[in-house]
From TrEMBL:
<feature type="binding site">
    <location>
        <begin position="113"/>
        <end position="115"/>
    </location>
    <ligand>
        <name>iminosuccinate</name>
    </ligand>
</feature>
<feature type="coiled-coil region">
    <location>
        <begin position="1"/>
        <end position="24"/>
    </location>
</feature>
<dbReference type="GO" id="GO:0008987">
    <property type="term" value="F:quinolinate synthetase A activity"/>
</dbReference>
<protein>
    <recommendedName>
        <fullName>Quinolinate synthase</fullName>
        <ecNumber>2.5.1.72</ecNumber>
    </recommendedName>
</protein>
<dbReference type="InterPro" id="IPR023066">
    <property type="entry name" value="Quinolinate_synth_type2"/>
</dbReference>
<keyword id="KW-0411">Iron-sulfur</keyword>
<dbReference type="InterPro" id="IPR036094">
    <property type="entry name" value="NadA_sf"/>
</dbReference>
<comment type="pathway">
    <text>Cofactor biosynthesis; NAD(+) biosynthesis; quinolinate from iminoaspartate: step 1/1.</text>
</comment>
<dbReference type="GO" id="GO:0034628">
    <property type="term" value="P:'de novo' NAD+ biosynthetic process from L-aspartate"/>
</dbReference>
<dbReference type="InterPro" id="IPR003473">
    <property type="entry name" value="NadA"/>
</dbReference>
<feature type="binding site">
    <location>
        <position position="25"/>
    </location>
    <ligand>
        <name>iminosuccinate</name>
    </ligand>
</feature>
<dbReference type="Pfam" id="PF02445">
    <property type="entry name" value="NadA"/>
</dbReference>
<keyword id="KW-0963">Cytoplasm</keyword>
<feature type="binding site">
    <location>
        <position position="42"/>
    </location>
    <ligand>
        <name>iminosuccinate</name>
    </ligand>
</feature>
<dbReference type="GO" id="GO:0046872">
    <property type="term" value="F:metal ion binding"/>
</dbReference>
<keyword id="KW-0808">Transferase</keyword>
<keyword id="KW-0004">4Fe-4S</keyword>
Length: 303
């Protein structure tokens, strides 16, 4: 407790000295979300990175998020608490494989989930997040789409379009673990609860949702709904904002396994240390960044 207090004081001081802004994804540990300037889903945090006038962005999330921030704000210094915080889904697609698919479907538009590396974004026409995936697809004037890397989100989005979708076989290890049986057991235990679910879950699980959306959309839905009790089908860090926004309501995570180990690699101590040492810093080669930037900026323009 005393140590946390000291760390927080040191953090405030360093933030001022460096003119830094702290961005934290909803899946971060509570101790990080508590001290963030902005908490959000991938979309909101990418927007904040693009808009900020701070000199330093401290991105508390996973590696691709820091990379996207650097691509959108190339003149800022972007640091992260621990470079080992990766995203296994982002690593499931590689440049050679994507190029091969593009060669096989030369007329297809490449739509890439923001959960991907800068190299993949550089091979992409437009990015999306779970918050805007349907809008992005519907904004495209094309008959054929190459979709990477999340097959579950791809399946969800394909229900909202007649376009042909060629879907990569990636998935999020954390969300993909949730099963129909898990949800049914929870529903039996909490018969008055609504099930809110992230579209990174398996299609048959998403189908059971009373509401489907990104983390921000789930938090907003629970706050505004008349329902008082929810079974939550997304990563457990989301509980922090859910409880803050809806203090009187009950939230039951659908299993105790909805924890992304990569997101939890970061902690308050590492956050303070990275601002102290200004390491690890994110670099993206300029030729890659330039191409990747186009795909992210196109996404930010979709209304
Ligand atoms: P959102 O931030 O779009 O809800 O996505 C969840 C996720 O898995 C981020 O890694
Ligand atoms: Fe990647 Fe899933 Fe963790 Fe998000 S929750 S960072 S998609 S592994």
């Amino acid at each position: 407790e005393q140590q946390n207090k000291e760390l927080k004081e040191r953090l405030l001081q360093l933030k001022k000295e460096r003119n830094a802004i702290i961005l934290a994804h909803y899946y971060q540990r509570d101790e990080i979300q508590e001290v963030a300037d902005f908490r959000g889903d991938s979309f909101l945090l990418a927007q904040k990175a693009a808009e900020t006038d701070a000199d330093v962005i401290v991105f508390c999330g996973v590696h691709f998020m820091g990379e996207s921030a650097k691509i959108l704000a190339p003149n800022k210094t972007v640091i992260i608490p621990d470079e080992r915080a990766g995203c296994p889904m982002a690593d499931m697609v590689n440049v050679d494989g994507l190029r091969k698919l593009k060669a096989e479907h030369p007329n297809a538009t490449v739509v890439t989930y923001i959960n991907s590396s800068a190299d993949i974004k550089a091979e992409t026409d437009i990015c999306c997040t779970s918050a805007n995936a349907v809008k992005v697809i519907q904004s495209l004037d094309t008959d054929e789409i190459i979709w990477v890397p999340d097959k579950n989100l791809g399946d969800y989005v394909s229900k909202f379009t007649d376009k042909k979708m060629i879907i990569w076989e990636g998935y999020c290890n954390t969300h993909d673990m949730l099963t129909v049986k898990d949800v049914e057991e929870m529903k039996a235990k909490h018969p008055n609860a609504q099930f809110v679910v992230h579209p990174e879950c398996r299609p048959e699980v998403v189908k059971l949702g009373d509401f489907v959306g990104s983390t921000t959309a789930i938090i907003k839905y629970c706050k505004e709904s008349d329902c008082q009790e929810f079974i939550v089908g997304t990563e457990d860090g989301t509980g922090y904002q859910l409880r803050l926004d809806s203090p009187g309501k009950q939230f039951h995570f659908a299993t105790k396994f909805l924890v992304c180990p990569n997101m939890k690699v970061n902690n308050l101590k590492k956050l303070v240390k990275c601002l102290e040492t200004m390491q690890p810093e994110i670099y993206v080669p300029e030729d890659i960044a330039e191409k990747a930037r186009l795909s992210l900026e196109r996404m930010l323009l979709v209304k």
